[in-house]
Design a protein that fits this description.
It contains 22 helices and 16 strands. By secondary structure, the protein is an alpha/beta fold. The protein folds into 3 domains: 230 residues, P-loop containing nucleotide triphosphate hydrolases (Rossmann fold, 3-Layer(aba) Sandwich), CATH 3.40.50; 91 residues, Orthogonal Bundle (Helicase, Ruva Protein, domain 3); 116 residues, no CATH class. Strand 1 and strand 2 form a beta hairpin. The N and C termini lie far apart (61 Å).
């Protein structure tokens, strides 16, 4: 720097230098990447440094698949909903949300989409072919069982199960190496079910000639968990039609009615297998846009395992005319192979250092970018692109705010009354935490509050300019029967550290025991 006409050397941090764009590569991709043809791309928001509109398109990235991570309340589901709506408008894309916990059910209905609820009157036959040859379908079924059960540890049980599935197809007059399956009159054949497989194995057991009866009995027992009355969601003829799932606009496949994680993973894997096979037969089309977008949200059971179909689809890249959006609050629930192979990763607010370590190791962004990501607010994000362009560009850049179809409304909890003196002196410690309105309302419903109580809380925030003291907030939740463990989880998801949470509950107890709840009562009763 120049002082009094003389040059002086000064020390500058890397982060300071990175902001001086004359000296370094610009910290954002070139304009042709950020702002392609708006009629053939999806608007996300403006970049943080140069305020350039960012439009996402699959054309410049290695493949159309997307990973999204961010804590509860960071704007993850808001981004996904916006993305699906704009893809439908821009490309006339269909969308299938494989909805683990029923989170998207109400939104799908509100937007005029269709909800299919497995476990609540809808069935999916695991042995449906979906246009595949029986031999190929058997391989997929066995790979799924290997992923979701311990059958791979018992080779004889695996062999017995595979043979029994093959036998029921043959008994049903299926040609094992053909895709099209019709009877003598030209009518489509009905696929066998898992109940037929159990029957075949049971008949073999009753004959009593098998050398290892215990292995046979265990193979039967393993499959019976999917064929019990009331839990035979995958052992009856399908009521779910694949063509309707992927060509009916917006469809939510609600898995919340299934009894456990294994059942939900079985449904998701089966649907992915059917879709991949159908898209493989149709092949990639160079027509404008993507035919289908598939959302896997919090699907850790199939997003983490290296041999799951979700990982295989991402690794196969741009072979099919559809894209998967794999999302999770916990980045470590998404396989590193997915982060390494998706064309785009959207990183919203991430809380723990170990999550940042995992993301940085998977995506290889700089320490400067890591620091920026650690300070992201609600609705802000970092974007990592795996571009096919040859010119030098930064692979990770920042979006100032995801701009949705309607403004994302934030609620704020004031923490100033519970911070220690040391925390108040630390300018890096936040005096409040924020979360999106819709995420907040969804969380209250998950806690068991009625729609009426949820609406009351919403009105309280709106009346106080969308802000509330955290101690008053916790007292209100407890008065409505929310247990402290759930309240603690909610605060942690919103970014409140453990020490501050302890201080909050201490202040709550003090306020209750001191008889100073008058202001809380006024908040509740005020019109």
């Amino acid at each position: 720097m120049a002082i009094g006409g003389k040059l002086h050397l000064v020390k500058l941090s890397n982060s300071s230098i990175s902001k001086r764009n004359i000296l370094v590569y610009p910290p954002e991709p070139p304009m042709e990447v950020l702002f392609p043809d708006p009629t053939n791309s999806i608007y996300v928001g403006r970049t943080k440094i140069f305020n350039v509109p960012f439009y996402w398109t699959y054309e410049n990235v290695a493949n159309p698949h997307i990973a999204v991570c961010g804590i509860s309340g960071s704007g993850k589901s808001y981004f996904i909903k916006t993305f699906l709506l704009r893809a439908a408008f821009t490309w006339n894309s269909n969308a299938l949300i494989i909805d683990w916990a029923g989170e998207y059910r109400d939104w799908v209905k509100q937007t005029g989409g269709k909800v299919v609820a497995l476990g609540k009157g809808s069935y999916l036959n695991l042995l449906d072919l979906g246009g595949m040859k029986p031999y190929d379908r058997i391989k997929q079924v066995m790979r799924t069982l290997e992923l979701l059960t311990d059958i791979n540890n018992y080779p004889e049980q695996r062999r017995l199960t595979e043979q029994a599935i093959e036998k029921v197809y043959i008994e049903g007059k299926f040609r094992m190496d053909a895709r099209e399956q019709k009877d003598e009159l030209g009518k489509p054949l009905n696929a066998p079910t898992l109940k037929d497989v159990v029957r075949t194995l049971t008949e073999q057991s009753q004959i009593g000639s098998y050398e290892f009866p215990a292995e046979l009995e265990n193979a039967i027992y393993r499959l019976k968990q999917f064929t019990k009355p009331g839990e035979d969601f995958f052992a009856q003829q399908s009521t779910v039609r694949l063509d309707e799932l992927i060509s009916s606009g917006l469809v939510g496949l609600d898995l919340a009615g299934l009894p456990d994680e294994t059942s939900r993973a079985l449904a998701a894997l089966t649907i992915l297998q059917f879709i991949k096979e159908k898209m493989r037969l149709e092949g990639w089309s160079d027509v404008k846009g993507l035919r289908l977008l598939i959302v896997l949200d919090e699907a850790w059971k199939i997003g983490k395992e290296e041999n799951s179909d979700a990982v295989m689809i991402v690794r196969e890249g741009r072979k099919y005319n559809f894209a998967m959006i794999i999302a999770s609050q916990n980045p470590t629930d998404i396989s590193e192979a997915i982060f390494s192979n998706v064309g785009t990763t959207f990183i919203l607010k991430v809380k723990f250092e170990r999550f940042l370590d995992y993301l940085q190791g998977s995506l290889n962004f700089s320490n400067f970018m890591r620091d920026e990501i650690s300070r992201l607010g609600v609705g802000q994000c970092a974007v990592n692109l795996s571009l096919t362009l040859q010119t030098p560009y930064p692979s990770t850049f920042l979006i100032d705010k995801i701009e949705g179809e309607e403004p994302s409304k934030e609620y704020f909890l004031d923490l100033s009354g519970v911070l220690s003196e040391k925390q108040r002196r630390d300018v890096s410690v936040s005096r409040s935490v924020s979360f999106l309105k819709e995420d907040f309302r969804r969380k209250l419903r998950q806690f068991g509050l009625s729609d009426e109580k949820t609406e009351e809380f919403t009105k309280l925030f709106e009346k106080s300019n969308r802000r509330m003291d955290v101690v008053s907030f916790v007292i209100l939740l407890e008065r409505d029967g929310i247990v402290r463990r759930n309240i603690s989880d909610f605060l942690k998801d919103s970014g409140v550290d453990d020490i501050t949470i302890i201080n909050i509950f201490g202040k709550v107890d003090l306020k209750k025991s001191g008889g100073v709840g008058r202001e809380i009562s006024q908040v509740v009763l005020e019109d």
